[in-house]
Specification:
By secondary structure, the chain is mainly α. The chain is built from 5 helices and no strands. It has one domain. It is elongated and about 85 Å long.
Length: 194
């Protein structure tokens, strides 16, 4: 006689009310449940980004130290810094390639993490095969913007001592207003067609 037995309590873990309803709630539950996995992907991505970060940090420190150590005849140091920026640009090309590999692997892993259909290394490296060209295109457009910014920074420092023109304003106008929409269009083109 099953009607007299006590009914089992229904498990309410996966009811509609308990499921996340927006992206913030999905992030919050994933952050609680899969924190170790997120850290693994982050560490692997930082491993790819580390050479770029270290090299560019050293470059900025070198340029700022060069300007602060010279008190007179600042125009004598500009050929050295210009040469350093050119060498740094050439070295940054393979470093941006390496960082785009790392970021390209991480993006799809995080996307598949929300679907809970994830394996760590195989999905990471499968995404590199699938989306490498798109992320290379995006990162090289960012690379171009950074190079324009650094050369504008150099010319800003050079002409700042000769005139009272607001070169910070000019550099920001050049890099953010004119260059960013073109980079955005290039990225959208790459996302659509590559």
């Amino acid at each position: 006689m099953a009607i007299f037995k006590r009914r089992r309590k229904i498990n309410e873990d996966f009811t509609y009310d308990k499921l996340p309803h927006n992206r913030f709630e999905v992030f919050k539950t994933l952050f609680k449940i899969r924190f170790g996995f997120i850290l693994k992907v982050l560490m692997l991505t930082i491993l790819f980004l580390l050479p770029l970060l270290v090299f560019n940090t050293y470059g900025r420190v070198y340029i700022n130290a060069s300007f602060s150590s010279v008190s007179q005849q600042k125009n004598q140091i500009y050929p050295q810094i210009f040469g350093f920026l050119l060498i740094r640009t050439l070295i940054n090309i393979p470093l941006f390639f390496l960082s785009s590999i790392g970021m390209g692997g991480a993006i799809r892993v995080y996307r598949k993490l929300t679907w809970s259909e994830i394996t760590f290394l195989s999905d990471y490296f499968d995404n590199l095969k699938i989306n490498l060209l798109r992320y290379l295109f995006y990162f090289y457009s960012r690379f171009f913007k950074l190079r324009v910014d650094s050369f504008c920074y150099l010319f800003h420092r050079r002409f700042k001592f000769k005139a009272d023109y607001d070169w910070d304003y000019a550099r920001n106008k050049l890099s953010s207003i004119w260059l960013c929409p073109y980079i955005l269009l290039l990225y959208l083109f790459a996302k659509r067609y590559l």
